[in-house]
From TrEMBL:
GO cellular component, one term: cytosol
Keyword terms of this UniProt record: Cytoplasm, Magnesium, Metal-binding, Phosphoprotein
NCBIfam families (alphabetical): PRK07564.1-1
CDD domains: PGM1
Name of the featured protein: Phosphoglucomutase 1
Gene name of the encoded protein: LOC113570153
């Protein structure tokens, strides 16, 4: 056992995992002695020793800077903590959806994912660690809180410092350790194959191949943004489904993502948006660093809002063989996501669940057999085939819909709005806000909306008046285990169904991000083709003035995400 250095500040003080694990700047992991070791030991210590002994753990990362260094440490500590086998993606690379798939395939006790998702990489960028449990999904709050509490009092960690593995060569490596009855095994696996085989059993690959390479094939443009999903796109979309090799760009994973921000939205995937505007391609998509998020674009840059994306898939689920065989158990969306999915659920009489942000809440519903399809406004879409959001799955789902309906993305979207109405939606991000100022803003706003006199209050902007029907700090009671998640975002809901939502994000590595969401439903078919920013301008003004966002944060120009 190697002792930790004595430190006046408890080691766990800066390590409480957020909605997507622990994320910090790379220099934090490099400069704070044993910072990485402490967190990894806390993860292993959170698993009962009887479950840990001889168990299988999956390890993979998005290829960002510090990835391979961290994996070697995890290998050394897994061996010393009684883990029997590690399954690691070749070169230490494996997408988040693929890790979830492999955890389930190998019946592992869990997996360690090295990713900061859509955050920048490189020596000056971010690094992250996330623990997924045996169902393949993110650890629930009970587990992450246990990890945090262990990290606060940890005094020593177990490690085999001389043990190193070859991350390049496929196959098994065995190590005989002192005081171990069985050798410790590390298995390096093809990062793509298990995941690709799963997709073959979900979608009609013959129909997709005809769509992408048949006589009347469509032209697609896929941007992997130098993240982990590049090899998956090349193998599945190009080599197997026949899309030309030049239809996929930025497919080589890079430690710094080519100096770009691997976030598939209109701001950070602007090059793809501009290319699509030229009209040369019928379908476009971008993926984030670890491959779980996606952005869908149609010809001439037609943007599919993520909230609309999951709703369209829900309305066309039986274009996908998996759902033809499995049926549909339920839908779910995160609370800040627009009500577009609600409209489909109501029309189809399928149960809808509204959860806090975080895929772990969907996993609980899936494990209980309540949920088939879910999505988040933050470009995350997925189903119960795994327990993570899945960018490439979403792309194949959309392509399946196009193949079955023989329509363009814009035609599919237009018909959807005419059938179900349209939820106009936008999200503004106020990044790197002083944490104290952000907390004060949220507390002050909660006081305002909690006042009994706030209910019924009217706000007039332009020619329209909005009257408050209810307002609260969103609280979720899990229907499976009864656990309560409080303080999940401030909601103002008006009598016409429009919503203003404020939320502090937990996925950044520094400062605070205040997110403002605006959602407004329109059922008049003559009013469903307006610019969302124009349509929602009045509600945005109300939100900014009520919260004093600009005065309290000093931010007058937020990032428009959707």
């Amino acid at each position: 056992m190697t002792p930790l250095p004595v430190c006046g500040m408890p080691w766990g003080c800066q390590k409480r995992p957020g909605t997507s694990g622990l994320r910090k700047k790379v220099y934090v992991f490099q400069s704070k002695r044993n910072y990485l070791h402490n967190f990894i030991q806390s993860v292993f210590s959170s698993i009962d020793l009887r479950d840990r002994q001889g168990s299988t753990v999956v390890v993979g990362g998005d290829g960002r800077y510090f990835n391979t260094t961290a994996i070697q440490v995890i290998v050394q500590m897994a061996a010393a903590n009684g883990v029997g086998r590690l399954v690691i993606g070749q070169n230490g690379i494996m997408s988040t959806p693929a890790v979830s798939c492999v955890i389930r395939k190998y019946k592992a006790i869990g997996g360690i994912l090295l990713t900061a998702s859509h955050n920048p990489g490189g020596p000056d960028g971010d690094f992250g660690i996330k623990f997924n449990i045996a169902n393949g999904g993110p650890a629930p709050e009970t587990v992450t809180e246990q990890i945090f509490q262990i990290s606060r009092t940890l005094e020593e960690y177990a490690i085999c410092p001389e043990l190193t593995v070859d991350l390049v060569t496929l196959g098994k490596q065995t190590f005989d350790l002192e005081n171990k009855f069985k050798p410790f095994t590390v298995e390096i696996v093809d990062s793509v194959e298990s995941y690709a085989n799963m997709l073959r059993n979900i979608f009609d690959f013959a129909a997709l191949k005809e769509l992408l390479s048949g006589e009347n094939h469509i032209r697609i443009r896929l941007d992997a943004m130098h993240g982990v999903v590049g090899p998956y796109v090349k193998k599945i979309l190009c080599e197997e489904l026949g899309s030309p090799a030049n239809s996929a760009i930025n497919c080589i994973p890079l430690e710094d993502f080519g100096g770009q921000h691997p976030d598939p939205n209109l701001t950070h995937a602007a090059d793809l948006v501009e290319t699509m505007k030229g009209g040369q391609y019928d379908f476009g998509a971008a993926f984030d660093g670890d491959g779980d998020r996606n952005m869908i674009l149609g010809k001439h840059g037609f943007f599919v809002n993520p909230s609309d994306s999951v709703a369209v898939i829900a309305a066309n689920m039986f274009c996908i063989p998996y759902f033809q065989h499995m049926g549909v158990r339920g839908f779910a969306r995160s609370m800040p996501t627009s009500g577009a999915l609600d409209n489909v659920a109501k029309a189809t009489k399928i149960q809808l669940y509204e959860t806090p942000t975080g895929w772990k809440f969907f996993g609980s519903l899936m494990d209980a057999g309540h949920l088939s399809l879910c999505g988040e406004e933050s470009f995350g879409t997925g189903a119960d085939h795994i327990r993570e959001k899945d960018g490439l799955w979403a792309v194949l789902a959309w392509l399946s819909i196009l193949a079955a309906r023989k329509q363009s993305i814009e035609e599919v979207m237009t018909e959807h709005w005419k059938t179900y109405g349209r939820n106009y939606y936008t999200r503004y991000d106020y990044d790197n806000v002083d944490i104290d100022a952000a907390v004060e803003l949220m507390l002050n706003l909660e006081v305002i909306i909690s006042d009994k006199e706030f209910i019924g209050q009217k706000f007039t902007e332009g020619e329209k008046t909005y009257q408050v029907e209810r307002a609260d700090n969103f609280e979720y009671s899990d229907p499976v285990d009864g656990s309560i998640s409080r303080n999940q975002g401030l909601r103002i809901i008006f009598k016409d169904g429009s919503r203003i939502i404020f939320r502090l994000s937990g996925t950044g590595s520094s400062g605070a991000t205040i997110r403002l969401y605006i959602d407004s439903y329109e059922k008049d078919v003559n009013k469903i083709f307006q610019d969302p920013q124009v349509k929602l301008a009045e509600l945005v003004t109300i939100a900014v003035q009520l919260s004093q966002l600009q005065e309290r944060t000093g931010r007058s120009s937020p990032t428009v995400i959707t």
